[in-house]
From TrEMBL:
It holds the Pfam family UPF0004. It comes from Odontophorus gujanensis (marbled wood quail). The lineage of its organism: Eukaryota, Metazoa, Chordata, Craniata, Vertebrata. PROSITE patterns: MTTASE_N, MTTASE_RADICAL, RADICAL_SAM, TRAM. Residues 219-488 form the Radical SAM core domain. The keyword Electron transport does not apply. The keyword Iron applies. This is Mitochondrial tRNA methylthiotransferase CDK5RAP1. Residues 75-195 form the MTTase N-terminal domain. Belongs to the methylthiotransferase family. MiaB subfamily.
């Protein structure tokens, strides 16, 4: 028995789970595991080979490891992503772990041995999409079973965390369930599933950030990438499920983030988005000398439901360091909370960099490679509804912040989130949200009808009393007003020259290219020969990853169109403007 356990540890499969065996349960025959008496017969589990074969043997000198896509390994994995950018990043983390364990990847579900769905739980519609997808996969799994080619299906992410029992028991279709903090356990869970059992690990962690795992970019050769800097959320807005599916806030060490961004720069990535549920409350506690630093102040007129946390390196420092890595790499971040844009320079920023005490807004204004674009989630234009949502600000405080942002960063592009039909929302509340959309005039908006989620404060304390048809009508009105104002905001750019990062061919026309400007607005322009703005003045063809100047000729609520002027660089364009 001792030799068996030593072999398991050598395979790297016990680690944390060995200390907490209750955290990762195996479910036999679709039933929850029950305590067994000493004489009770235990279900057969995976044997030693299931664990050892995931351990890479040393590669003999002069030989190379099997290339990706070869027939060796544990099987082919098909990954499907739903929801936000955090789930895109989670997909890359999960794949990095499975690839290291010996799995290969396929883009075809029909040829996969394992199908993993990375899921979202923010709204009921997102979960329903997964249930519908599982019904399609049910037929595929039945065909594979008849052909004696077993197919394992897994649910990962937020929906796994929220609905573990229901997922495992409904029709016995799903083999593994893994929450957002359990991706390291995927090889073990899949080994358990291969033996015919269901397996689950949905334990939330107070410190898991996957800082030591370099995500494998899901789009090979892509010029944009997401880098997760923190996980979880402490804000506890009354409508939001995120704190219950992703846990409490914890931040990656800055050193690991800088290393990942540097690798992406070396790979030719031209735009990085720093990701987190609340990025500007970033707080790296890994360096002892900064653990006693004072707690940061909040934006004027904003509050939190939790006590401000002292210590650590903050988001302004991270943003400063990331922007210095590559002057030709654009930096974005999402999603911030409006409360974390204070005016004052903190004592810590003076200690770190006495000649540069600027905060986040000043950094955006000063650095040519930090995009002049901010996401400021408002959620509602009614102070009464904002209080019910526990957002920590009033309509007036939010508008004051918008004015401050626009005075600090001239020409900034703003985006926001809005919820239609929250608990107790009246027609007057709704009209205040309409007026906020008109007053601020956002460039980009994400608008949704309210969907009550179990476990949230709203579920326990409030009534979902706005009828579905009223929610839908209000949502459609908000969308209409947003589009009208976004069209006006974008029309103001007609005649201007925009710096655009080329992403590739337009989806609607092979003769046009598509990219995004500094404000993250889509720009369409002809795929034609153009001059290079460098000293050679050579005639070139724009390629994905190139920066080009485009003169805007027309605009809609979502897109700019223009004519191509020349190819340039980020630094050269900044010097000319």
């Amino acid at each position: 028995m001792r030799a068996w356990r030593r072999a398991l540890r050598a395979a790297g499969t016990l680690r944390w789970a060995a200390a907490h065996p209750w955290a990762a349960r195996a479910v036999h025959c679709g039933q929850r595991e029950r305590p067994q008496g000493r004489g009770a017969e235990l279900p057969a589990g995976p044997d030693l080979r299931h664990f050892l074969r995931g351990t890479a043997a040393p590669t003999p000198a002069g030989e190379t490891e099997p290339r990706q896509g070869s027939t060796s390994g544990l099987g082919k994995v098909y990954l499907e992503t739903y929801g936000c950018q955090m789930n895109v990043n989670d997909t890359e983390i999960a794949w990095a772990i499975l690839q290291k364990s010996g799995y290969t990847r396929t883009k075809e579900a029909e040829e996969a041995d394992v199908i993993l769905l990375v899921t979202c739980s923010v709204r009921e519609k997102a979960e329903q999409a997964i249930w519908n997808r599982l019904q399609h996969l049910k037929a595929l799994k039945a065909r594979r079973h008849q052909a004696c080619l077993p197919l394992r299906i897994g649910i990962l992410g937020c929906m796994a965390e929220r609905l573990k029992e229901e997922i495992l028991h409904r029709e016995k279709l799903v083999d593994i369930v893994a929450g957002p903090d359990a991706y390291r356990d995927l090889p073990r869970l899949l080994a358990v599933a291969e033996s015919g059992q269901q397996a689950a690990n949905v334990l939330l962690s107070l410190d898991e950030t996957y800082a030591d795992i370099l995500p494998v970019q899901t789009s090979a050769g892509g010029k944009t990438a997401f880098v997760s800097i923190m996980r979880g959320c402490d804000n506890m807005c009354s409508y939001c499920i995120v704190p219950f599916t992703r846990g409490r806030e914890r931040s990656r060490p800055i050193a690991s983030i800088l290393q990942e961004v540097k690798i992406l720069s070396d790979q030719g990535v031209k735009e990085v988005t720093l990701l987190g549920q609340n990025v500007n409350s970033f707080r790296d506690m890994s360096e002892v000398q900064f653990q006693s630093a004072a707690a940061p102040v909040l934006s004027r007129g904003f509050s939190t439901v939790y006590k401000a946390k002292p210590g650590g390196l903050r988001f302004a420092h991270l943003l400063d360091q990331v922007s210095r890595i590559d002057p030709e790499m654009r930096i974005r971040f999402t999603s911030p909370h409006p409360k974390d844009f204070p005016d004052e320079a903190t004592e810590l920023s003076v200690i770190l960099c006495p000649e540069h005490t600027s905060q986040v807004l000043q950094l955006i204004q000063e650095r040519h490679n930090i995009c002049k674009q901010l996401h400021l989630p408002a959620q509602s234009g009614s102070t009464r509804v904002l209080e019910a949502m526990r957002r920590g600000y009033t309509r007036e405080a939010y508008l004051e912040l918008v004015q401050h942002v626009r005075s600090t960063i001239p020409g900034v592009s703003l985006s926001s989130d809005f919820i239609a039909g929250f608990c107790g929302e009246t027609e007057e509340d709704h009209q205040q949200t309409v007026s906020l959309l008109r007053e601020v005039r956002y460039n980009v908006g994400f608008l949704f009808a309210y969907s009550m989620r179990q476990k949230t404060r709203a579920y326990h304390r409030l009534q979902d009393d706005v009828p579905a048809d009223v929610k839908q009508r209000r949502l459609e009105e908000l969308i209409t007003v947003f589009r009208e104002e976004a069209a006006r905001a974008n029309e103001a750019m007609v005649g201007q020259t925009q710096l655009v990062l080329v992403e590739g061919p337009s989806k609607r026309s092979a003769s046009e290219l598509c990219g995004r400007n500094d404000g993250n607005i889509k720009v369409i322009f002809p795929d034609a020969d153009t001059e290079d703005a460098g000293g050679c003045k050579a005639v070139v063809r724009a390629q994905p990853g190139d920066y080009v100047l485009v003169k805007v000729t027309s605009a809609s609520s979502q897109t700019l169109k223009g004519v191509l002027l020349c190819r340039t660089t980020l630094s050269r364009s900044a010097a000319c403007h």
